[in-house]
Amino acid sequence: MGDRRRFPALLPLLASGGVLAFVGRAVLALPPTASGLAVEMRDGAKASGIKNVVTAVLLDFRGYDTLLEIAVLMLATVAVLSLREDPAALSRRIAGRAGPVLGALTRTLAPLMILVAGHLVWVGSSEPGGAFQGGAVLGAAGILMVLSGYAQPAWAGRRMVRWVLTVGLLAFIGVALYPMLGGGSLLQYPDESRKNLILFIEILLTLSIGASILSLFLASASATAGGERP
Amino acid sequence: MNVLAQSPGLLVAVPLAGAAISFVAGRRRAPHVAITTALVVLTLAVALAVHVLDGGPFRYQVGGWGAPLGIDLVADGAAALFLVLTAIVGLVVTLYATAYFRTDDETAYGHGLFWTLWLFMWTSLNALFLTGDVFNVYVCLELVGISAVTLVTIGGGAEALRAGARYLFASMLGAMTYLLGVALLYAATGQLDMDVLRTTLVADTTAATGLALMIAALVLKTALVPAHFWLPAAHGSAPSPVSAVLSSLVVKGSYFVILRLMLDVMPAGYLPGVDIVLGVLGSAAIVWGSVQALLQTRIKQLVAYSTVAQIGYLFLVFPLARHGADVLTLALTGVLVHALSHGLAKGSLFLGAGSLMTRFGHDRIADMAGAARSAPALTFGVALAGVTMMGLPPSGGFGAKWLLVSAALASGEWWWAVVLVIGGLLAAAYMFRLLSVLLVDAPTELHASKGDIRTEWLPLALALGAVLLVLAIPLVSDLAAASNVLIHAGVTP
To answer: In this complex, is the C-beta atom of A112 within 8 Å of any C-beta atom belonging to chain B?
Structure first.
């Protein structure tokens, strides 16, 4: 019995060991320094007028990757929702209650976190920050509010919530398609409105990313708390 | 706006917009969103194919930056063929699904999200066929993987959840391995664009390791034997419209990237021996998958193992590609025709199997006698799809095998032709096993009420397409000639 169990475990172990050696050899063969596309990125960022190179890569040079990544994020949320049979059951399971400490903490923290989320998006064009960071903080604020009973957790079933989850992707697609009217290609922001368009996308993305995080949290919380599948 | 020149961008943006809109449209309007999207995407795919036939392959710079900084889409003949195949099968599956996932079925919560998930998957397949960037492939693979796994589980039930979990692990392992490969390749070369890599790739341990990992990951995603372990359960236990899409389209997505990397990006012999290994594994897949299909007692498991076998043919192009331009042209055209005919026929078989299961109320092949009498159109569709699977003339499957056998004989490596013949005979054996039961003239108690014009006739439509494909082979060879593989090999001027 023990042998039969140990043998199949040995195979993946050997396989991973082999891959590790193979990759290790490849990594050791690398030259000590490599520039990659760093020069092109700096020049491109200068041309685009977006000072933060990370934001320029994410939303401009490789904005297409990000568009699809946003789709991945929304898809993951839809995927989790599709596995849940009854969205209304959620509100019954997480009955958040605010004790004096959690209540006071939430009243202080939640507005501050929403403010920070806005700030992160705003500074994203020149300093570290942006929609993903802002969305993460916003989502965390939402989780805090649900846990302390300040927000209704009857989340996934509502039509309005679906709109919030989708609005970032819809705005991104709209902005991506807009340059085509003028003969440009997908996501080819016009130079004069580049900064404003990117800010517009980032603000709406922040809302959707925050909503996604909150939805994923609520859906997984309900799965561990109840586990009532038909 | 020039729709022809913009078609690559639109082929990704339109289904993506459809996915987002179907999510907020609500249960009743979502099917209409999906049908509209399907019609627009089919038009765009045909427009792109026409544009490629007229003016040859073209590149599309997303964001206007261009490689190496930006991401370029590549519209060539091979991509056009896969896009059109996806659009045709996609439209038929969408129409079939309107009958299969009834909107009045309130108990199935997940079903309301089928349309959104399916349009996300369609987006990612189109993106995968068009992308010219090795990192962007990773993003597309993530999108394909998550949507595919979720669609497998959408019908609920323990079996589907188990199959979905296994599929998820295989899919994640593939995606992570691919990403590791891209990281190594980028570290060694500083480039992500396939065309830049094609012209700049030099012998280098790190780059070769990266590419080898990428190929291995894609082989896992394509379910080539012995990495097929996740496929029969996932394709067999998914709802039938989903099985059709997974078998006829999704495995081709990752295969298409292997094709690009092996025959276009890497110079010949860059990874020595890998082409032979892929050919040998392909041959093993043909034999092993067919034998397993022969042993199955449940209809969808039979069809799923048949996919394992049919995937094998696609890999015979790699060893044959070493034998000069003429053999490469024959072999490439052969695998492209095979991908199309298998896509259409397998779509038909899974949709037909789904209809038979609904009508009979079970999936045991042995108890499906008499189907021909009470569901003639459906049975005829399954039989026609079987004809192309076996490679009998006149059918797309016959055209594909003819081209591949010619390539094998012209290369002097006749043993690949033997594999092709054995594969055809085994396919005949497992298809006859199914058909001999369906065609028995016996009284049956079918759920007549569950028949629907869509579920009866759409499988036949796809099967007819697979048979009539034989007439379109000249068109396919024109598009093959307009593929970057043949252009960069110097075959097409």
So the answer is: no
Task: Report pTM.
Answer: 0.94
Would the pLDDT of A226 be above 60?
Answer: no
Q: Is A39 on the interface with B (CB under 8 A)?
A: no
In terms of Cα–Cα distance, which of A212, A11, A69 is closest to B143?
A: A69
Sort out which chain A residues have CB atoms less than 8 A from B24's CB and list them.
Answer: 159, 162-163, 166
Residue A104 belongs to some domain of the structure: yes
The closest CB to that of B13, out of A87, A159, A177, belongs to A177
Residue contact A187–B63, C-beta within 8 A? yes
B245/B242 Cα distance (integer angstroms): 5
A97 belongs to a structural domain:
yes
Tens-place pLDDT, residues A158-210: 788 889 999 999 999 999 999 999 888 999 998 888 888 989 999 999 999 99
The CA distance from B92 to B75, in Å, is 24
For A165-186, give the DSSP string: HHHHHHHHHHHHHHHHHTT--T
Q: Name the residue with tokens 């298409």.
A: B256
In this prediction, the residues of chain B whose per-residue pLDDT falls under 70 are: 1, 103-111, 445-451
The rounded distance, in Å, linking the Cα atoms of B209 and A19 is 10
| A-chain residues near B135 (CB < 8 A) | 62, 65
Q: Of B16, B68, B110, which is closest to A173 when you measure between CB atoms?
A: B16
Reported as a pLDDT band with limits 50, 70 and 90, residue A230 is very low
Q: Which domain holds residue A174?
A: 47-225
Residue A212 maps to a domain: yes
Structure tokens at B388: 């192309």
Please say whether the beta carbons of B254 and B221 come within 8 A: yes
Structure-derived torsion over alpha carbons of residues A87, B28, A201, A176, reported in degrees to the nearest 10: 150
What is residue A199's DSSP assignment?
A: H
Amino acid, single-letter form, for residue B3: V
Torsion on CA atoms B174, B176, B181, B183, rounded to nearest 10: 160
CA distance B219 to B227: 7
User: Is the predicted pLDDT of residue A227 greater than 90, yes or no?
Assistant: no
Tokens matching residue B266: 């890497």
Helical residues (DSSP H) of B101-132, grouped into ranges: 114-130
Q: Angle A91-A94-A95 (CA atoms, 0-180°, nearest 5)?
A: 85
Q: Which residues contact B355 (CB under 8 A, 6 or more apart)?
A: B240, B375, B378, B451, B455, B456, B459
Cβ contact B364:B424 at 8 Å? no
Neighbouring-strand partners of residue B59: B74
pLDDT, residue A44, reads 82
pLDDT above 80 for A97: no
Host H or E run for residue B406: helix B396-411
Cα torsion angle, A6, A10, A11, A13, sign: positive
Does the CB of A173 have a partner CB in chain B at under 8 Å?
yes
Neighbours of A65 (CB within 10 A): 21
Inside any domain, residue A96: yes
**Is beta strand B71-75 parallel, antiparallel or unpaired with respect to B58-62?**
antiparallel
Length of chain A (residues): 230
Q: What angle do CA B304, B307, B311 make, to 5 degrees?
A: 155
- For B489, phi then psi, to 5°, come to -80, -5
CA distance B11 to A82: 26
Q: How far is CA B193 from the centre of its chain?
A: 24
Torsion of CA B79, B388, B344, B341, to 10 degrees: 0
Instruction: Please report, for residues A107, A204, B33, B138, B160, the alpha-carbon distance to residue B133 in angstroms, rounded to integers and kept in the order given.
Output: 47, 27, 30, 9, 34
CA-angle at A75, arms to A70 and A81, nearest 5°: 135
Distance from CA of B330 to the nearest CA of A (A): 35
User: Mapping DSSP to helix (H, G, I), strand (E, B) and coil, where does residue B72 land?
Assistant: strand
Q: Structurally, how many domains does chain A consist of?
A: 1
Give bridge partners of residue B72 from the DSSP assignment. B61
